[in-house]
Amino acid sequence: MTPPSHPRDADQEVARLLAEQDLLARSVSHDLRQPLHVISGYVELIAFKYRDTLDPKGQQLIHKALAGVERMNTMIDAVVGLMRIDTQAPWQQSIDTTALVDDVIAQLQPQAQALGATLERRMLPPVPGQPLLLAQVFEQLLANVLRFPGEGPPHGLVAARPVDQGVRFEVRDQGAGIDARLHKSIFEPFGRGLDSRAGTGMGLAISRKIVELHGGQLGLDSKPGQGSTFWFTLPS
């Protein structure tokens, strides 16, 4: 009979796997960025060498090419971030989600004021989790309230209610709503269901992975013209 492994051996194996995953993330980041550096370098060289002969249309094309490179760099950051989420260890820390959401709303307040938007929350229960990761989920969902408004000023509400063996958090808006055919695709990496011009298409995919890492689920209730409710459950 094979003797049971020592806890220290298991810890060492986990540490080794996490180190390998981090190395893979850094390698992917480097390998994807390298050709982008070459492309941007040549485009900038063309812009400099032919600056006196390029007409406004040519200058515009140069600007679009460099903007595309920058957008690709942003998307690589999002992919690497998604890869590294699994490196977080299990936790037992109890989080004051009321205070956490207050901090997120405060960070978004300048943007909300510029749009005439209102972000508010009801009293929220404590849950076990990793505060920085859960703050990222609330920030993504509340930022979407501001990013995709309806006809009137954006309004977002964070609420929670008990469900079987856990808590269901909800972020409700009064936006344009989302067609049911898009409810699945927007949670996929690079999902463009909401608006192809905004963000990287990774925010909801990262949020879903964070919630699943906490043992919960992330979903959406929405109909066109009736606003949206993004919700996620967490064990309590």
Textual characterization of the structure:
- With 236 residues, the chain is an alpha+beta fold.
- The chain folds into two domains: 81 residues, no CATH class; 142 residues, Heat Shock Protein 90, CATH 3.30.565.
- Helix content is 50%, strand content 16%.
- It is built from five helices and seven strands; from the N terminus they run ααβαββαββαββ.
- The strands form two sheets. Strands 2-4-5-7-6 form a five-stranded mixed sheet.
- Helix 1 runs antiparallel to helix 2, helix 3 runs parallel beside helix 4 and helix 4 packs antiparallel against helix 5.
- It is globular.
- The model has no long low-confidence stretch (mean pLDDT 81).
Structure characteristics:
single chain; 236 residues; alpha+beta; Heat Shock Protein 90; 2 domains; 5 helices
